[in-house]
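Chapter review: from sequence to fold.
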Amino acid sequence: MFKNPLTGMMIVDNVFVRIHHFVRIGDTHQGHAHTFDHITLLSSGAVKMVHDNGEEDYKAPFLIVTPKGIKHQFTALEENTVFCCIHAIRDGDSIDDVASPDITEEQAFELMAKYPLTI
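The C-alpha coordinate string follows.
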Protein backbone atom coordinates (compact mmCIF):
# COMPACT_ATOMS: atom_id res chain seq x y z
CA MET A 1 0.00 0.00 0.00
CA PHE A 2 1.34 3.41 -0.95
CA LYS A 3 1.23 6.24 1.54
CA ASN A 4 1.42 9.11 -0.89
CA PRO A 5 3.46 12.16 0.03
CA LEU A 6 2.04 15.64 0.36
CA THR A 7 2.94 17.32 -2.92
CA GLY A 8 3.09 20.70 -4.53
CA MET A 9 4.22 21.73 -7.99
CA MET A 10 5.50 24.79 -9.84
CA ILE A 11 6.67 25.60 -13.33
CA VAL A 12 9.05 28.54 -13.81
CA ASP A 13 10.92 29.35 -17.03
CA ASN A 14 10.25 25.85 -18.46
CA VAL A 15 11.56 24.09 -15.34
CA PHE A 16 9.17 21.66 -13.66
CA VAL A 17 9.55 21.16 -9.89
CA ARG A 18 7.39 18.85 -7.79
CA ILE A 19 7.96 18.83 -4.05
CA HIS A 20 7.19 15.67 -2.05
CA HIS A 21 6.85 15.66 1.73
CA PHE A 22 6.86 12.29 3.46
CA VAL A 23 5.48 12.88 6.94
CA ARG A 24 6.12 9.41 8.38
CA ILE A 25 8.86 6.80 8.12
CA GLY A 26 7.76 4.26 5.55
CA ASP A 27 5.73 6.70 3.45
CA THR A 28 6.28 5.92 -0.22
CA HIS A 29 4.91 6.58 -3.67
CA GLN A 30 4.24 4.47 -6.72
CA GLY A 31 7.37 4.03 -8.80
CA HIS A 32 7.78 5.52 -12.25
CA ALA A 33 10.32 6.29 -14.96
CA HIS A 34 10.91 9.47 -16.95
CA THR A 35 11.54 9.97 -20.67
CA PHE A 36 14.58 12.17 -19.95
CA ASP A 37 17.30 12.26 -17.26
CA HIS A 38 16.28 14.25 -14.20
CA ILE A 39 17.47 15.40 -10.78
CA THR A 40 15.91 14.77 -7.39
CA LEU A 41 16.93 17.22 -4.68
CA LEU A 42 16.70 15.52 -1.29
CA SER A 43 16.50 18.56 0.97
CA SER A 44 15.71 16.98 4.36
CA GLY A 45 15.49 13.52 5.88
CA ALA A 46 16.51 10.29 4.19
CA VAL A 47 15.11 7.94 1.55
CA LYS A 48 15.56 4.48 0.17
CA MET A 49 15.51 4.59 -3.62
CA VAL A 50 14.57 1.29 -5.25
CA HIS A 51 15.32 1.32 -8.97
CA ASP A 52 15.85 -0.98 -11.93
CA ASN A 53 19.52 -1.45 -11.01
CA GLY A 54 19.06 -2.14 -7.28
CA GLU A 55 18.51 0.13 -4.30
CA GLU A 56 20.38 2.87 -2.49
CA ASP A 57 19.89 4.93 0.66
CA TYR A 58 20.42 8.70 0.59
CA LYS A 59 20.62 11.27 3.40
CA ALA A 60 19.94 14.98 2.89
CA PRO A 61 21.27 17.16 1.58
CA PHE A 62 21.87 15.23 -1.63
CA LEU A 63 21.30 15.49 -5.39
CA ILE A 64 20.18 12.22 -6.99
CA VAL A 65 20.52 11.93 -10.78
CA THR A 66 18.23 9.36 -12.36
CA PRO A 67 18.90 8.38 -15.98
CA LYS A 68 15.99 8.31 -18.41
CA GLY A 69 13.97 5.13 -18.50
CA ILE A 70 15.04 3.91 -15.04
CA LYS A 71 12.00 3.02 -12.95
CA HIS A 72 12.46 4.35 -9.42
CA GLN A 73 10.54 4.62 -6.17
CA PHE A 74 11.31 6.48 -2.94
CA THR A 75 10.47 5.44 0.63
CA ALA A 76 11.06 7.67 3.67
CA LEU A 77 13.66 6.47 6.16
CA GLU A 78 13.08 9.47 8.45
CA GLU A 79 10.06 11.53 9.44
CA ASN A 80 9.50 14.79 7.55
CA THR A 81 11.58 13.80 4.54
CA VAL A 82 11.33 16.35 1.72
CA PHE A 83 12.55 15.97 -1.85
CA CYS A 84 11.92 17.68 -5.19
CA CYS A 85 11.77 16.19 -8.67
CA ILE A 86 13.30 18.72 -11.10
CA HIS A 87 13.43 18.62 -14.91
CA ALA A 88 13.16 20.78 -18.00
CA ILE A 89 9.97 20.79 -20.02
CA ARG A 90 10.63 19.57 -23.57
CA ASP A 91 8.82 20.46 -26.79
CA GLY A 92 10.34 17.63 -28.81
CA ASP A 93 11.92 14.21 -28.53
CA SER A 94 15.57 15.12 -28.13
CA ILE A 95 17.65 16.50 -25.28
CA ASP A 96 18.04 19.86 -27.08
CA ASP A 97 14.30 20.41 -27.44
CA VAL A 98 13.86 22.45 -24.25
CA ALA A 99 10.65 24.44 -24.33
CA SER A 100 10.70 28.21 -24.36
CA PRO A 101 10.77 29.80 -20.92
CA ASP A 102 7.83 31.94 -22.06
CA ILE A 103 5.32 29.10 -22.25
CA THR A 104 2.25 29.27 -20.07
CA GLU A 105 1.50 26.72 -17.36
CA GLU A 106 -1.26 25.29 -19.58
CA GLN A 107 1.17 24.89 -22.50
CA ALA A 108 3.70 23.26 -20.17
CA PHE A 109 1.15 20.65 -19.05
CA GLU A 110 0.23 19.95 -22.68
CA LEU A 111 3.91 19.34 -23.52
CA MET A 112 4.44 17.17 -20.43
CA ALA A 113 1.43 15.03 -21.43
CA LYS A 114 3.46 13.92 -24.47
CA TYR A 115 5.89 12.20 -22.12
CA PRO A 116 3.82 10.36 -19.54
CA LEU A 117 5.50 8.70 -16.60
CA THR A 118 6.02 4.99 -17.04
CA ILE A 119 4.68 3.09 -14.05
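Two observations follow directly from the output. The CA atoms of residues 33 and 71 lie 4 Å apart. The mean pLDDT is 84.
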